[in-house]
Amino acid sequence: MEAMLEVRDLDKNYGATEILKDVNVSAEPGGFLVLVGPSGCGKSTLLNCIAGLESISSGSIHIDGRDMTHVSPKDRNIAMVFQSYALYPTMSVAGNITFGMKVRGVDAATRASKLQDVARQLQIEQLLDRRPSQLSGGQRQRVAMGRALVRDPQLFLFDEPLSNLDAKLRVEMRLEIKKLHHDLGATMVYVTHDQIEAMTLATKIVVLKDGVVQQTGSPAEIYRRPANLFVADFMGSPAMNLIPARASREGSGTRIQIERADGAPVELIDTGNGDLPEDVILGLRPEDIAEAGFRSGHHVHEVKCLIDMVEPAGADTFVVSRLGGKQVTARLHSDTMARPGSTLDLVFDLDRVSYFAPDTGERLN
């Protein structure tokens, strides 16, 4: 299947400053590609390059098999939804949604028909005569999406569209966008710094840092098998526990030793991962550390831990202890009896473990 969007060997410089470095990204027809990373990593610049709003220094951009590298934005058959919504304040909602069609010479009957279809889909029929100043943030977001929808583009581009909304509305609009993607079957490229948004919306995630692609994969791949320490730490809430450890051969397996301030080192035997260097960073997600008796398996190891902090979070309770000089967070059931200052038997599930090189940060297993 030919990609709907293909970005090849893209570089973007401002003078001597490199913003994007050798970026290769693709989106399949009907896919939902999310560009995620911290502020300043280049994700919005990459989106603007795809849209044609920014020129590129080298490389190419193909949309539906056509080289669009030097094609004007208006001829790329894309629609963009901005963080600021970019609505015309003096126009009604109906005027904002149909303005682009009017400029392109679409006849009045077609404009009216498309307006009604989109307004019904986004449930904004009752808002069509209002001005943007009379709308809530969520309503403005719907209007901005409506303006993109009437274009019937090959590619939808979203630039942090939910970052101006409150937490509850963000969840609602996220579901709205996911439903929209399902109903339309359209190809979407979405920029966010919110890794929860990335995980819930994407069919494919691209993680960026300092203009360099760190990892590309499905949400499950990015979460379960992060390519390096940056991805492991950035994706997931709470983040993956990253614990300095020492590895040595133990028969057919590996002995993992973790220092701790309040007693003898923790020792784990990992029979699934051999050939590790002596110094490693051991990575485990909080949900892969459970209370004894609540997780079983061949590679589950019990560790007595002194609890520093307990954080109730509704359905879960997070407990924090210290191992290897680092805070280690476990996601436990809500009725745990863990208390700060008490000792608790926690089990580490080494079936889910990741190992990283301390010097390069790269994944080892």
State the major sheet: 6 strands, mixed
Number of strands: 21
Q: What is the SS-derived class?
A: alpha+beta
- The name CATH uses for the topology of the largest domain is Rossmann fold
Distance between the termini: 31 Å
Average pLDDT: 92
Describe this structure in words.
The chain has 365 residues and is α+β, with helices and mostly antiparallel strands. It folds into two domains: 5-234, Rossmann fold; 241-356, OB fold (Dihydrolipoamide Acetyltransferase, E2P) (Beta Barrel). The chain is built from eight helices and 21 strands. Helix 2 (93-103) packs across helix 3 (108-121) and helix 2 (93-103) packs parallel to helix 4. The longest helix has 18 residues, at 167-184. The model has no long low-confidence stretch (mean pLDDT 92).
How would you summarize the topology of this molecule?
Elements: E1 5-14, E2 17-27, E3 32-36, H1 43-51, E4 58-63, E5 66-67, E6 78-81, H2 93-103, H3 108-121, H4 137-149, E7 155-159, H5 167-184, E8 187-192, H6 195-201, E9 204-209, E10 212-217, H7 219-224, H8 229-234, E11 241-250, E12 253-258, E13 266-270, E14 279-284, E15 289-291, E16 300-306, E17 309-313, E18 316-323, E19 326-333, E20 343-349, E21 354-356
Parallel strand pairs: 3-8, 3-9, 6-7, 7-8
Antiparallel strand pairs: 1-2, 1-4, 4-5, 9-10, 11-12, 11-14, 12-13, 14-21, 15-20, 16-20, 17-18, 18-19
